[in-house]
Automatic annotation (TrEMBL):
<dbReference type="InterPro" id="IPR044136">
    <property type="entry name" value="Lys-tRNA-ligase_II_N"/>
</dbReference>
<comment type="similarity">
    <text>Belongs to the class-II aminoacyl-tRNA synthetase family.</text>
</comment>
<dbReference type="InterPro" id="IPR012340">
    <property type="entry name" value="NA-bd_OB-fold"/>
</dbReference>
<feature type="region of interest" description="Disordered">
    <location>
        <begin position="45"/>
        <end position="78"/>
    </location>
</feature>
<feature type="domain" description="Aminoacyl-transfer RNA synthetases class-II family profile">
    <location>
        <begin position="248"/>
        <end position="456"/>
    </location>
</feature>
<keyword id="KW-0479">Metal-binding</keyword>
<dbReference type="InterPro" id="IPR004364">
    <property type="entry name" value="Aa-tRNA-synt_II"/>
</dbReference>
<dbReference type="GO" id="GO:0004824">
    <property type="term" value="F:lysine-tRNA ligase activity"/>
</dbReference>
<protein>
    <recommendedName>
        <fullName>lysine--tRNA ligase</fullName>
        <ecNumber>6.1.1.6</ecNumber>
    </recommendedName>
</protein>
<keyword id="KW-0436">Ligase</keyword>
<dbReference type="Pfam" id="PF00152">
    <property type="entry name" value="tRNA-synt_2"/>
</dbReference>
<keyword id="KW-0030">Aminoacyl-tRNA synthetase</keyword>
<keyword id="KW-0067">ATP-binding</keyword>
<dbReference type="Pfam" id="PF01336">
    <property type="entry name" value="tRNA_anti-codon"/>
</dbReference>
<dbReference type="GO" id="GO:0006412">
    <property type="term" value="P:translation"/>
</dbReference>
<dbReference type="InterPro" id="IPR018149">
    <property type="entry name" value="Lys-tRNA-synth_II_C"/>
</dbReference>
<keyword id="KW-0547">Nucleotide-binding</keyword>
């Protein structure tokens, strides 16, 4: 719960928080020109109820000692998560889906900033053509009385949401204040206004929570500064540090331009094998793995020059031949652990697969964005695997070749980092995987996938 107050003397505010400590402890954060009170924990004593910036209890006098906040941070994180899970349940009890299937966006934040750059302070454009729809993550919020401001960030930039109680239907304003948190992904519709202070804003007439975030974002002012954590949790890094995503966009454009340049010069792109039968790369120490089907060691590639040189003696001939596709729709949940539940048919998912000439060419589905549902499905998968593994292990003593039976007794664990990423909030999305090699097989009328891979992995000749 977040509630904004009119400016008060800090001493009065601390007294207010302390008086409520037994039943409703608080964290107090100064967000100029407002103080925001955020519910934090239900176990804090009255002597330490008031804390500043989510840290340790505030101490008076000159003899303050810095104290570790790692334990508090962990407990605060879990407390926030518990509160937000309750909000997910409340949304569902009100007939609202906290993990939407889609949202029709008309503009990005940057597009609106450009289109309405000449709009004067205090002016509002509310004609039919100025009615816009936008979506993004809430990265800042403040609310007081019948007015609330939120900063929405999408992949292009930020824009303010100007929320007045009178403009919103029914009890949406109360939902906005009580159920929307920083980190949530929101869709909003409304007209365009520039405030008296010059902030371009969407005057919200309606909104929808597209993805309810369960975990708090890094501190607004300090961001995510731990280098190791930035690398391990890149999804948080890109939320806390928007410039990081710009680096990856530039990288993608650089690679695209390089590809265009070499292709325009007549070069052909070739995929060299990632795993090969002989170690290469001069003095570099190779990574060794074992190929179960082939029964041999393989080495992770280091140098690609030799394979590329071999390509100089090949000739590439492509004979396109398209055929009528067949789509298989709506797979059961049990075999589609990453797909969204079907919105009309219980027990099924929104998924299709494309088959051509009896071969699977593509697999696509609405991405599951509910982290709790995803966790339950993956836990069920691990449970089923462990049951199968137990059966395999019990048969190992009976098998003549124990190594052959042991091949199926590998461990499967939950990908906690993936589940954590979902808990930060993933926007509505769909995904498709296209089998490039199988498509090439179709277009070249090739009988085997090895025919379309320049350097397939093969058994070593004796």
């Amino acid at each position: 719960m977040e509630v904004a107050l009119q400016p008060l003397r800090l001493k009065q505010l601390l007294h207010f928080a302390s008086s409520k400590a037994n039943n409703n402890p608080f964290i107090i954060r100064n967000i100029r020109p407002f103080f925001v009170i955020r519910c934090c924990s239900t176990t804090t004593s009255s002597s330490s109820a008031a804390t500043v910036d989510g840290g340790a209890p505030r101490q008076s006098g000159r003899n303050r000692r810095p104290s570790s906040t790692s334990t508090n941070s962990t407990s605060d994180r879990e407390a926030v998560r518990a509160i937000r899970i309750k909000k997910v349940q409340e949304l569902r009890s009100n007939g609202l889906d906290p993990y939407a299937y889609k949202w029709d966006r008309t503009h990005t934040a940057n597009q609106l900033q450009e289109i309405y750059r000449t709009l004067g302070n205090g002016e509002e454009s509310n004609s039919e053509s100025d009615y816009v729809s936008i979506a993004g993550r809430i990265v800042a919020r403040r609310a007081f009385g019948k007015l609330a401001f939120m900063t929405l960030r999408d992949d292009s930039g930020t824009i303010q949401l100007y929320c007045e109680k009178e403009r919103l239907l029914s009890d949406q304003f109360e939902q906005l204040k009580t159920l929307v948190d920083i980190g949530d992904i929101l869709g909003a519709r409304g007209s365009i206004k520039r405030t008296e202070k010059g902030e371009l804003s969407v005057c919200v007439n309606s909104f929808s929570i597209l993805t309810k975030s369960l975990l708090p974002l890094p501190d607004k002012y300090h961001g995510l500064t731990d280098i190791d954590k930035r690398y391990r949790q890149r999804y948080v890094d890109m939320i806390a540090n928007p410039e990081v995503a710009d680096v990856f966009r530039k990288r993608a454009k650089i690679i695209s331009e390089i590809r265009k340049t070499v292709e325009s010069a007549g070069f052909v792109e070739v995929e060299t094998p990632v795993l090969q039968g002989a170690a290469g790369g001069a003095e570099a120490r190779p990574f060794i793995t074992y190929h179960n089907s082939l029964g041999q060691d393989l080495y992770l590639r280091i140098a690609t020059e030799l394979h590329l040189k071999r390509m100089l003696v090949f000739e590439i001939v492509v004979e396109p031949k398209l055929m009528q596709p067949t789509f298989v729709l709506d797979y059961p949940i049990e075999i589609s652990p990453l797909a969204k539940p079907h919105r009309r048919h219980a027990g099924l998912t929104e998924r299709f697969e494309l088959f051509i000439c009896g071969r699977e060419m593509a697999n696509a589905f609405s991405e599951l964005t509910d982290p709790l549902d995803q966790r339950e499905r993956l836990e069920e998968q691990v449970k089923q695997h462990n049951k199968k593994k137990a059966a395999v292990v019990s048969e190992m003593s009976k098998a003549e070749d124990e190594n052959e039976s042991a091949d199926d007794s590998y461990n499967v664990t939950l990908d906690e980092d993936f589940l954590t990423a979902l808990e930060y909030g993933m926007p509505p999305a769909s995904g498709m995987g296209l089998g490039i090699d199988r498509l090439v097989m179709l277009l070249t009328n090739s009988a085997s996938i090895r025919d379309v891979i320049a350097f397939p992995v093969l058994k070593t000749l004796q």
